[in-house]
Write a structure and sequence with these properties.
2 copies of one chain form a homodimer. By secondary structure, chain A is of the alpha+beta class. Chain A is built from 12 helices and 17 strands. In chain A, strand 13 and strand 14 form a beta hairpin. The structure holds a DNA duplex. Chains A, B: Its main location: nucleus.
DNA sequence: ATGTGGGCAAACAGCCGACAA
DNA sequence: TTGTCGGCTGTTTGCCCACAT
């Protein structure tokens, strides 16, 4: 019975340091956080979308305009902290941003700004709970491959083979489960302790659980990987895991709730109007004074990734040509927490909100999706979300849309590409309009290395 | 077993019309909402306090100033809707305010603006739950007087006397309880159905429940009371209640949670800075354009009643003299949901935040409390929260603080009071500074009737 | 390979009066 | 008057396997 009690290590107030692997696993394979210190592009418009999704209220029309707030702000990302809601375990990130002046925007890219985003953990599994899993009648049926991959091995000389598993959640609470291999045919089960977890987290059939086999001193591990990279490559990852597996291993446990019909959350703190105004005013004030501001990014609340690495933005907006009729692919998360690509066709390029946010790249691409189940996929995407295909357009564009960009003259063409190769709609005609006085763009600096993209 | 199931009448989205009596009972005896259509004074500073209390974050110093936003706005209250959080049953109110121009501020008071605030229901009881009440081992022990007052009478000819009670909560969900009178000595108990309620509302020992015996058509009842006031006075209230008791009665059920150590709620939607900015910017924008804005008032989240009837404000600020050393009484809510008065002495009169909110009446009075358990009571209060005593000050004031008010000359003195009778600190010297161009104040209009206060 | 259901024992929920504060 | 407890059912929880998919 003591086994069934989770040892709640109540650490109210500020979370110390949330496990990054677990956070990313819960956030999903498509979510990546820009590196601390890197430059990012912040979209008030996208931020607004997130608030609208959280409050279930569309942005009202009588919200004042902030004419000095451009549709995107180039910022330095000073701080990123990962959080999880104490009640629901919903993951979110807090970011501290500082708008940059023209000088800083122009500086060449740093290595961290070009690095690959953090990946999903390797030794993990994610299972969508069945009715049996969440019922009080029984325990949790562990898929065989999953158990073999992420759980410590059982002693099969015993009958039945069993062990006690201890897993930690995002709040560093400990959950104990009896892991047993029994039944006819044999299968892995979590019995004692499981229902306590289900009721504490209020899980229902359709929600998912994630188990990760992690190394406690993963930072030390990374350190060793860095210095002994060659040894690692020779001996393989398993050797390194083996080094730590005996003492310092740990099982992590996260949840991901099904996309239930959102409960109306009128927040009872601040009206949604005030929230929208607050977000805009905070950004406008920060932009005017070049001071820091703080935002919350809630990856599962809305499909609006509104803080984008600057390198990704620059590549997509300036180094990719798109036109109406062009085919593209875009990544989506599957039900099983992996990714798949959906195909579509660009049907238009225009401002999402020409009145409030003219000349914004936010969701400037109107698209149609190939598959008939496309009702749930957005009809508008941003340039950096899609991978245009280099094949011919599906059908010829109604009009060419090929305008000569007002690129600073006298500069060498980019990567063997001529100016004429860029296609722009009128609204996208001058992408530099928000960087007054900006001279040679950063990606024209000698240190800029396009091959790193 | 069907008895134990609450009939959840899920009405997602907008609440229709919450029961006002129940809302007020849950909000507590000190909470009153201004009348729709009346003029009120809105304090951004107090609103800010509520956001700070909700987010557990003090207002940061680098939030921009809104120099055009006065510390108090005279507004018309266009709409008030009562709400209850779907998760926690926490009560809150949504108000739509519209800042008024000088002309409208000056208009004479309407009857609704001078009416008494809504009272607590009469036929109700509130009990703080014991360990036995919340334990799964037993039911709910109903205090005898409470049961006799608010529950329908039992048939004592039966052995044991018992009946089924049906009560409705703020969300209009139905809860059924078996009410039985048994034991040695005899007592009233709620048995079947009680534990379902306790676990559904997640009640713990220390929380309170409120039962109200209400009339469904209370508006009709008020209507009759109004027209047949004399008959009512002759026949007595019981006659009127009897008229409706047979068919249209209903039992209401609310909860009030103990003041547990507040769970940190970083909201995960918007940073507390942005919320503060949002509140200020929304008010400033509304003030500049004389347009409506919406606020949420959360009476139990913080002791900051930041929307005050204008009449109450005017009376306290202009028609009450206070000085350092003066004794006063102030109402507080007791644990048992009734009120008691605490005594204190005014120790100073000054701005709470001279930098950000100069010349504000919000919590401008520094006080000391008589009782040693005063640690939990605020050291600063607003003028309209206290009842100054007309007795002599406890100790003579260090300096007179008696300044001649710059009252418009040529007007008759107020209610036989001479100008000299008003005592003001320098910061409160000119209470009209926020009403530029204001002539004779509303309380000088012939229709203003001070006896209604 | 894994979801569901019957059988069964142990644990818990929940109704009762006794007692004491 | 009312909070808590021991006694005593009836229901639920939860571990086991069989069986079906």
């Amino acid at each position: 019975s003591a086994m069934a009690q989770p040892q709640q290590q109540q650490q109210e107030g500020e979370q110390r340091c949330l496990n990054s692997e677990l956070w990313h696993a819960c956030a999903g394979p498509l979510v990546s956080l820009p590196a601390v210190g890197s430059r990012v592009v912040y979209f008030p418009q996208g931020h607004s979308e997130q608030v609208a999704a959280s409050t279930n209220k569309e942005v009202d029309s009588h919200i004042p305009n902030y004419p000095n707030l451009p549709p995107q702000l180039i910022c330095q990302l000073h701080n990123v902290t990962m959080h999880a809601d104490a009640e629901t375990d919903e993951v979110y990130a807090q970011m501290t941003l500082q708008p940059l002046g023209p000088q800083e925007q122009k500086e060449p890219f740093l290595p961290i700004e070009l690095g690959a985003p953090s990946k999903q953990p390797t030794n993990y599994f994610c299972k969508t709970l069945t009715a049996s899993d969440t019922s009080t009648h029984g325990g949790f049926s562990v898929p065989r491959r999953a158990a073999e991959k992420v759980f410590p091995p059982l002693d099969f000389s015993q009958q039945p083979p069993a062990q006690e598993l201890i897993a930690r959640d995002l709040h560093d609470n400990e959950w104990k489960f009896r892991h047993i291999f029994r039944g006819q045919p044999k299968r892995h089960l979590l019995t004692t302790g499981w229902s306590v977890f289900v009721s504490a987290k209020r899980l229902v059939a359709g929600d998912s659980v994630i188990f990760i086999w992690s190394l406690v001193f993963s930072f030390l591990c990374s350190y060793l990987f860095f210095f002994f990279g060659k040894i690692h490559r020779i001996l393989g990852t398993d050797y390194f895991i083996h080094l730590f597996r005996n003492d310092n291993n740990q099982l992590l446990l996260g949840i991901r709730r099904a996309n239930r019909p959102q409960t109306v959350m009128p927040s009872s703190v601040l009206s949604s109007d005030s929230m929208h105004i607050g977000l805009l005013a905070a950004a406008a004030h920060a932009a005017a004074t070049n001071s820091r501001f703080t935002i919350f990014y809630n990856p599962r609340a809305s499909p609006s990734e509104f803080v984008i690495p600057m390198a990704k933005y620059v590549k997509a907006v300036y180094h990719t040509r798109v036109s109406v009729g062009m085919r593209f692919r875009m990544l989506f998360e599957t039900e099983e927490s992996s990714v798949r690509r959906y195909m579509g066709t660009i049907t238009g390029i225009s401002d999402l909100d020409p009145v409030r946010w003219p000349n914004s790249h936010w969701r400037s691409v109107k698209v149609g999706w190939d598959e008939s189940t496309a009702g749930e996929r957005q009809p508008r995407v941003s340039l950096w979300e899609i991978e245009p295909l280099t094949t011919f357009p599906m059908y010829p564009t109604a009009f060419p849309l090929r305008l000569k960009r007002p690129w600073p003259s006298g500069l060498p063409p980019l990567y063997g590409m001529k100016d004429d190769d860029f296609a722009r709609t009128p609204s996208l005609m001058n992408p530099m309009m928000n960087f007054p006085g900006l001279g040679a763009p950063p990606w024209l600096q000698p240190s800029f290395n396009p091959s790193m993209f």
